[in-house]
Amino acid sequence: MTSHVPSPADAAANANGDADAAADSLARARSAGDRSAEARALCDLGTELIRVGRAGEGRYLCRRAAGMAAEAGDRKTEEAALGALGHTLAELDALGERWRAALLAGGDETGFFGSPAAARSDRSYATGERPDDDPLRLTGDLVVELACGYVAVKFLGPFVESFAGKLGETLGESAVAAAGRLRLLWDRRSARRDFDVVMPGERTTLVLPEHFDDAARLAAVDLDLEADGVRGAELHWDADAGTWNPANT
């Protein structure tokens, strides 16, 4: 299945030098088991993504940074992460723990649509930007949730970061830029989850199985998305064969 949609904001991806540095710092902090340093790197990465227009991803990462910094007792990083979200520690301290929990739970980094087609035709899908507040979306039955880039980590965990890293190697770009090509569409009516990779001029879709186990995840990371029969296709997991296969094959 090939769909001609605009590629992600390549200009923004090219401006991601600071984000790439933050991502490197994040990897080092995780390797060292330094939670405070990990929180700082998440904050830096989120703040930079907001700056280059990937606000949904940036806000999600800043929320994670604020929660992690609070656990580590790093008030300076917590203040910086909350500041990127437009809040202050003093404000949240005054409001109490209930409001802090509500803020860190977030949710405004995803968009809701009536169908997968409606989600894929929206500007936020094409650009990876934070969905606009469009009152027209409030009509009908909104059942498809769209998460772009790093926000997909919220639903799929570290797999997204591993996938972005491998994709970046394939495309000759950073993992940060590659993550900006990823979209997760979760149809709550059918329980179908489509993991889209938006490439120049087309997209490849992995239809995630209900039990998205380690075998399926590792095979997805190892996919050659440039290969014939894979690029631009809709792929389904064959658990018996241990392979991702194009639809109708």
Q: What would you note in describing this structure?
A:
- The protein has 13 helices and 7 strands.
- The protein is 49% helix and 15% strand.
- It has a 7-stranded mixed β-sheet with strand order 1-2-3-4-5-6-7.
- It has helices at 10-14, 17-32, 35-51, 55-72, 75-84, 89-95, 97-105, 116-121, 123-127, 153-156, 159-171, 175-179, 214-221, and strands at residues 111-113, 144-148, 182-187, 192-199, 202-208, 234-238, 243-246.
- The protein is of the alpha+beta class.
Question: Descriptors for this entry?
Answer:
single chain; 249 residues; alpha+beta; 7-stranded mixed β-sheet; 13 helices; disordered N terminus
Topology of helices and strands:
Layout: H1 10-14, H2 17-32, H3 35-51, H4 55-72, H5 75-84, H6 89-95, H7 97-105, E1 111-113, H8 116-121, H9 123-127, E2 144-148, H10 153-156, H11 159-171, H12 175-179, E3 182-187, E4 192-199, E5 202-208, H13 214-221, E6 234-238, E7 243-246
Parallel strand pairs: 5-6
Antiparallel strand pairs: 1-2, 2-3, 3-4, 4-5, 6-7
Helix pairs in contact: 2-3, 3-4, 3-5, 4-5, 11-13
